[in-house]
Amino acid sequence: MTLLLAIDGGGTGTRCIAVDPGGRTRGDGRAGPSNHLHVPLVTATEALRMATSEALSKAGATIQDVALVSAGLAGVDFDGTGADTAAGMLRSIGFGRVVVHGDMVIAHRGALAGDPGVVALAGTGSAVLGITRGGATIKAGGWGPLYDDQGSAYQLGRLGLVAAAEAFDGSGPATALVERLTAALGASNLPDTVARLYGTASGQQRVAALAPVVTACADEGDDVAAAICGRAGAALARAVLAVIRRLHALEAREGRAAGGAREAPACLASYQGAVLERSGLVRAAFLETVRAGEPQVEVRPPRFAPIVGAVLLGMCDAKWDLRLESLETASGV
Amino acid sequence: MTLLLAIDGGGTGTRCIAVDPGGRTRGDGRAGPSNHLHVPLVTATEALRMATSEALSKAGATIQDVALVSAGLAGVDFDGTGADTAAGMLRSIGFGRVVVHGDMVIAHRGALAGDPGVVALAGTGSAVLGITRGGATIKAGGWGPLYDDQGSAYQLGRLGLVAAAEAFDGSGPATALVERLTAALGASNLPDTVARLYGTASGQQRVAALAPVVTACADEGDDVAAAICGRAGAALARAVLAVIRRLHALEAREGRAAGGAREAPACLASYQGAVLERSGLVRAAFLETVRAGEPQVEVRPPRFAPIVGAVLLGMCDAKWDLRLESLETASGV
Questions:
Q1: Which ipTM did the prediction report?
Q2: A239 plus A255 within the same structural domain
């Protein structure tokens, strides 16, 4: 059997699917985080080993059946910084042919299936990637938690904690977040949550894991939580608008360089990640702010998940010729 | 010689002064952070050992001359949580009689010299402490960096980083902070600052150390930095107003319990710490917001530094009778 292994490795979890040359998914696997900047190299390598071996085992295949590994990993930047380290982890597992992209790159390829445009990725962290018609790339965000990854699950969780602390102190409006975050952290009262978040190596993940509590509170009508969701969506949109402006400038230059007529600055935008996909309030604020800033931009829902973006990029490298339609099934894994 | 050792130990540094029964400062010492929640116990203990031995050495005294150690430490809460651990550190150095308070408690005692009222403390972290006429205490803030210590040096530094990242990406207004924070972190460009802040155990301190860069930019007319300072001062004021409201409610109850006539709810407020003391913009926003919320509150500049608060609390314990005026000199150390 000849297989392509596609990997989507993030700050919270790692996913792998084994795809045959016909585009059928033959097996899948999951494991913990594989961002080598945030967890030790051995931990990240072990996550990659577990996810890939589970996918191969379910496919009834072995490592010898793998024609190519195509990975998109957090901890690898859009320009390839960090890719060597990540490729080294995969080679140490025993894979021969390995292509590594940043998580933003596979998210972009999945969401727009190869079309130029801008994609906002909001998972544990967040970032925005734009690709011009000529293939040039522009990034915004992705600075990590200390710089506030706008619209990320981490930011949502953190702003939820801030709002709960202010409500508890009486210096901010009352909110259901006090009770809900206390319960989510298994504490008996809000001050007891402090000890549960500090001193743990995975503080960022524990905070990011609170994002669904905040979006649920917002959906249930809590005004404070709803304001946090609106702020997150608008901030992501501002990053998208900034990338679109730089994209237009680059494409105008590319058009002049090619000597062609300057095309109208139309642009596609899309998004990926749990925050924008699962919270209608975050998405609504995102769409509204993008449209208010650049009315001619077409915002599409993501066509494929990031892991299918890794499949598409791998197929190019492996020179497998495949119609996108045959991958629709893989997206559902 | 009989001496009282007063200690002010925070997230960034530790200070000790040796005071004689006449209120004269005979020696002082400094060392690194002694917050045992943020640095290992051995590190915190070593900082306490260094600061105290330097103060004793300058006073020409030994550990046998110390009648009492009165310490105010970050990592000890206003209600005494954590005091046992801190006292254990001091006893392991060889001190027999030890009294430990939270850093907020000595800050309050120093700023208002024993009067009831509310004191905002904004150093590496921040917190607000109110003390009623009857001696009851009310705290707001002090949740730590993950919950955004409003108005703290950490928050100022972090908001500076966020604003610089947004300006760099083009998703926020231009600001001098991009260049200034890059230089302050010894990096060649803003993306290079990322590696300098993550993966270091002292991330909180390194971010807090950027606060003077932000306040300096604001003083030089940078609108983005000025907005950050204004936001910090207003947030600290909201915490003060919340404590004042709870103080009034408690004092009304205390008044009824004592059967006395209910006094008019006047209140004193003050502040401590580098952020509020050194930045006129933070202080102006703080004062304006406090006065807008509670016009009858009298906001006083701090009378003594926190370490003098530790002296005053120690003198009570040691039953040393001393007039406040004789301590004015100690405040200047």
A1: 0.81
A2: yes
